[in-house]
Amino acid sequence: MTAVDPxxxxxxxxxxxxxxxxxxLVIGAGMSGLGFANWARERNPAARVLVLEAANEPGGYCRTxxxxxxxxDYSGHFFHFKDPAIEAWLRARMPGQDVRTVxxxxxxxxxxxxIDFPFQKNIHQLPQDELIECLVDLFDATTTTHATPPxxxxxxxxxxxxxxxxxxxxxxxxxxxxxxxxxALDPDAMGRFFPHANLADxxxxxxxxxxxGGYNATFTYPAGGAVQYVNALLHDLPDDVVACNEPVISIxxxxxxxxxxxxxxxxxxxxxxxxxxxxARMAGVAHExxxxxxxxxxxxxxxFDKKGPGGVHWMYFPDRTLSFYRVxxxxxxxGGDRMSLYVEVGAPHGATFDVPTLLARVLADLQRERIxxxxxxxxxxxxxxxPAYCHITQASLAETARLRAVLAAQGVHAVGRYGGWxxxxxxxxxxxxxxxxxxxx
Length: 441
Prior knowledge:
The protein has 441 residues and is α/β, with parallel strands linked by helices. The protein contains twelve helices and 18 strands.
């Protein structure tokens, strides 16, 4: 039996009004939607803001499960703050919470050995013959002149980092994560989150004591789970601002009216974190649905009777014969005395999961990788995230820009990872919605 975190604040429900008028109607009570609600009310306390959530609780994918003494999220949600004001604002609304700031320990399990992340800056940890192979391929790649820019994410990897680095880690790992061919993705599909490296970076990282952990060398995480950040966003919102179990069925752009199963709502501005193609369907806007592809992720949360490996927070697995692409250790972050894992399995959109069979395979693969030895599984939970990662392509970028412009001209603003059909962090969503509130209030 899965228990929802008892500290999560509830949302309200439709108040029975058959027709309601608001200044700001928000679709989705995840971090983006709740963030906008806060920023809009801060700038204009008199504005009427209503957040509609189709699920029975707020948070979107940023939810926490408390079960049998384990604290798990809907996949790992660790915050890498770049804006001190955002972090301070959230912490001020988390009274009494133990929020850990952690120096990240992440590694890559490659051919039976653990390589520090990012792979391309730590190839000196490979066996000598593979190091030489990677360096020669890198030199060849970086000294080859191309008349045109790379056409895909896969081609970009070969051109910038060479065959060795690409085929040993970057291609197999990312194809497991995205559950698609990297040659279908835009060269900049991961934006600033892809740890680029040139020959000077790689050689420099070979010096004793040098260490580059990528863009997120530290992260913060509350002892009560990621839902505490959701609670922070709910902290200042009156109970009648968020209505759960109330999906939007349709949007009349001309009349600026949204219809739910229980009422019609007139709005001045509508802000949506729903997946962009879903928003276009609700609003009756013609769009090319086929360009919006994505993967799904099955996340297993696993609790064991005793500790496992230490000194690691999460580990990447490029080996295509393994069921999972990433494993994370909550107990190594929070200091628990029992191993508490999240294990992520990627699959294309539309694939079906045989969860019991996959759980057995995941446990066998964890044993094969020496993460589980004589441990006993004492609690488990699973959740499917769909969509999980958007497939960013030249076609999706063009259609996203067109759709967002069409909708914005009608007072509808698509935000967040799925509203913007992009790759971004939760902090990026909060910064985006804060800026949007500044333009609309």
